[in-house]
Amino acid sequence: MRIAIIGAGPAAVALIDTLTRPGADVPEITVFDPAPHPWRGRPYAPDLDSVLVNVPPALMSVRPDDPQHYASWLGGRGAAYHDPLLGAPLVPRGLYGEYLEETAEKAVAAGDVRLVPARAVAVTGDLRVRTEDGREHDTDRLVLCVGSGTPADLYGLGGAPGHIGDPYPLSRTLPDVRPDASVAIIGSRLTAVDVAVSLAARGHDGPIHLLSRGGMLPHVWQRPDGWRPEHLTPEAVRALGAEVTLAALRELLRAELDGLGEDLADLEADLRAAATEDPAARLRRQIEEVASPLQARRLLQDACHTVMPEAWPLLPEADRALLRRHARLAVSVASPMVPVNAVRLLSLYDSGQLTSVAGVRSVVSADGGFRIEDAGGTRHADVVVNAVNPPPGSVPAPAAELVAAMLAGRLAARHPDGGIVPADPRVHVVGDLRGGRPFLTGGIPDVAGAAARAARALMRG
Ligand SMILES: Cc1cc2nc3c(=O)[nH]c(=O)nc-3n(C[C@H](O)[C@H](O)[C@H](O)COP(=O)(O)OP(=O)(O)OC[C@H]3O[C@@H](n4cnc5c(N)ncnc54)[C@H](O)[C@@H]3O)c2cc1C
User: Fold this and answer.
1) Which domain holds residue 198?
2) Are β-strands 208-211 and 354-357 bridged in parallel, bridged antiparallel, or unpaired?
3) InterPro entries of this UniProt entry (predicted)?
4) What is the pLDDT of residues 397-431, one digit of tens each?
5) Is any atom of ligand 1 closer than 6 Å to the C-beta of 120?
6) Distance, CA of 340 to CA of 336 (rounded, Å)
7) How far apart are CA 70 and CA 397, in angstroms?
8) Are 345 and 300 members of one domain?
9) Which atom of ligand 1 sits closest to the CA of residue 446?
10) Which of 174, 205, 446, 459 stands 20 to 30 A from 113 (CA)?
11) Are 155 and 169 in contact (CB under 8 A)?
């Protein structure tokens, strides 16, 4: 069987790793990706050492059945990157990219895998993939693993001098920023944190503003302690079936917290405060709570990635709409920042170099820089860095033609909530573009789990 995989990021690495394991009936695999650093996907290309992985090693394995796969690969090298607060190594994302590359190279050596360094632009109904250079490649199965792409240009600043539309790799974009320039970063999520701490690591001494509508930062990781939930589990959701509602999930959470002697009301009060609490004060408190024995927030974060994918398609539409209205809060809980970055960010707030600017209404190119209108008035920035990642389900620009061809050829269909789903049994979609998922960005475990499921389906034929 011939399998075409479009996109050579972590999803593709997990796929070829599973498909070429000893004992598998090895298919003929062709992977398409024009990226200069194939197998690393969008986040894990070589970059500054200050650009770190966002999660501890047990959650960065591309093998769902071997959570230690990445930690074993890292071995003693991890000691140099130990985050004492988290109690685990957090390596530069470029080093994690080496893990992806080596895992892919082993699979290439073990099986019949070929990399075509070209962008796929079309696919026909009989699964003939066309690449940008006009070549055609016949296949029997197709897996779309194109990720979710680059930041959206919310304020139409593309091409304006001083505007950095796509910050990665920061090793390419930040050297152009004068050390004394005033920098406005659009967004206040993990990419914005990467930019702020990397500017500081490069010795930037001009003011840095984090611009957003609400000013909410990602929460801070708490030290993992291996505790496993008993009530709030994917199995419990499957048992509820059509009875799944937010209220039912809340009762599972309450049961879990009751068993631990913790109060759900405390967690809810803390989450409610996220929208109004001063970001630096909240950050300081959460740094103090990294090693807290309280499980509530760990539980909720874990549930976003384990329970929510099961629950999401079963939830009544009104509950899904409610969650979407609180998407910013949900994402900040589901994708927290690592403590080492939290500490760096807090020192920037404390020194007065960093400020959070909420209620941003407009950012326009003016006076040799940018004019920003926000809830507090008008301010100027010399440089604007766009750190707003597109929501899951967005079609990345390099895949736009291909996806359009798949939709037109009825190989795939749009999901009403965004993203696309296969409309032909020979087609699979893995990663954030897949419709029907919650609106949370998938981490490595989500992507690797989905890839392993696709691989099993492909092997079953
Ligand atoms: C900045 C950033 C940091 C992150 N950090 C972490 C982290 O530390 N830990 C974690 O668990 N998760 C992290 N994530 C989540 C991340 O989405 C996943 O870890 C992972 O990268 C998703 O893998 P993927 O293969 O689905 O997509 P991607 O990594 O986006 O890879 C998609 C690939 O498809 C290729 N492609 C696109 N269109 C075409 C086409 N038409 N033809 C051929 N190739 C194409 C692209 O060139 C790219 O190489 C991060 C995400 C971002 C954006």
Assistant:
1) 163-218+338-386
2) parallel
3) FAD/NAD-bd_sf, HpyO/CreE_NAD-binding, L-asp_N-monooxygenase_NS-form
4) 999 999 999 999 999 999 998 899 999 999 999 99
5) yes
6) 12
7) 30
8) no
9) 11
10) 446
11) no
Mapping DSSP to helix (H, G, I), strand (E, B) and coil, where does residue 434 land? strand
Same domain, 210 and 269: no
**Ligand 1 centroid to 259 CA: how many Å?**
38
Ligand 1 site, residue 387, Cβ cutoff 6 A: no
58: Cβ below 6 Å to ligand 1?
A: no
Q: Measure 144 CA to ligand 1 centroid, in angstroms.
A: 12
Is 396:441 a contact under the CB 8 Å cutoff?
A: no
Domain stop point among 334, 354, 377: 334
Classify residue 369: in a domain, yes or no.
Answer: yes
**Is position 299 within any domain?**
yes
Tokens of 286: 């959460």
Distance 62 CA to ligand 1 centre (A): 13
Q: Is residue 410 part of a domain?
A: yes
Q: How confident is the model at residue 148 (pLDDT cuts 50, 70, 90)?
A: confident
Question: What tokens were used for 91?
Answer: 């390596």
Closest CA to 308 of 293, 280, 330, 326: 330
Q: Are residues 326 and 343 in the same domain?
A: no
Same domain, yes or no, for 213 and 241? no
pLDDT band at residue 372 under the 50/70/90 scheme: very high
Note whether residue 323 is domain-resident.
yes
Judgement on whether residues 363 and 419 belong to the same structural domain of the protein: no
Question: Which residue's C-alpha comes closest to atom 18 of ligand 1?
Answer: 443
Ligand 1 centroid vs 446 CA: distance in angstroms?
12
Same domain, 247 and 297: yes
Alpha-helix runs per DSSP H in 84-150: 93-110
Q: What share of the chain in percent tops pLDDT 70?
A: 100
Residue 268's φ and ψ, nearest 5 degrees, are -65, -40
pLDDT value of position 441? 87
Q: Is the CB of 119 under 6 A from ligand 1?
A: yes
Distance 374 CA to ligand 1 centre (A): 32
